[in-house]
Design a protein that fits this description.
It is built from six helices and ten strands; from the N terminus they run E-E-E-H-E-E-H-E-H-E-E-E-H-E-H-H. With 199 residues, it is of the alpha/beta class.
């Protein structure tokens, strides 16, 4: 797969995983930890990979740039802020560490919509997908402003930047089942996904 030039891949792994009971990055799907599935794809796609975490000791053997949350209690928004802060490139593609079925063709397609925008985010039937989206470094200050107001929802800073929403009909051609946006929060969800993949 042809690499997307000068883009950082950011993996957010700072969550507490309280519902799962273990760090979701290391849950195995089809015998491979989710973090390794994401890394394998990101190595094909991006010139730089950053993992944002508050448990850096768990990732010390992983070949990626590990950075610690600058704002450890600010949720995914704080993780995105940290990733963008440390990124070497203007644009970054950001995902959560519990998304095992990312689609390289879809990620590349979205990269073609970057020109002139700060955020490129898919909208599915479940709504906007802020943890499967591209962000420019111009988002850093709006995110900082939002957090200073005590808000921690990623989509709340979208009105402050140039936003490009990619709608479902455009996504369906590359990912008709919407598997790219699946994330795993509970043991029950994991069991359901594992059974579905076997059938």
């Amino acid at each position: 797969m042809q690499r997307i030039k000068e883009v950082t891949g950011i993996i957010l792994s700072g969550g507490r995983s309280t519902r799962m009971g273990e760090n979701k990055a290391f849950i195995q799907i089809e015998g491979v930890p989710i973090i390794q599935r994401i890394l394998a794809l990101f190595r094909e796609l991006f010139g730089e990979i950053i993992i944002v975490t508050n448990q850096e000791e768990l990732f010390e053997k992983i070949d990626a740039r590990i950075v610690v949350d600058l704002l450890p209690n600010a949720g995914a928004l704080g993780g995105l802020y940290t990733g963008l802060f440390f990124s070497s490139f203007r644009y970054s593609f950001c995902v959560a560490c519990d998304m095992p079925f990312l689609n390289g063709s879809l990620i590349k397609h979205l990269s073609g919509r970057l020109q002139g925008y700060d955020v490129i985010v898919p909208r599915t039937r479940d709504g906007l997908q802020p943890l499967h989206a591209y962000y420019s470094r111009d988002c850093i200050e709006p995110i900082k402003k939002l957090m200073q107001e005590g808000k921690h929802k990623i989509i709340d800073f979208y009105p402050m930047v140039k936003l490009n929403v990619i709608h479902e009909d455009e996504l369906d051609a590359l990912d008709p089942d919407g598997e790219s946006f699946i994330n795993i929060n509970t043991p029950e969800e994991l069991d359901s996904i594992q059974r579905r993949r076997i059938l």
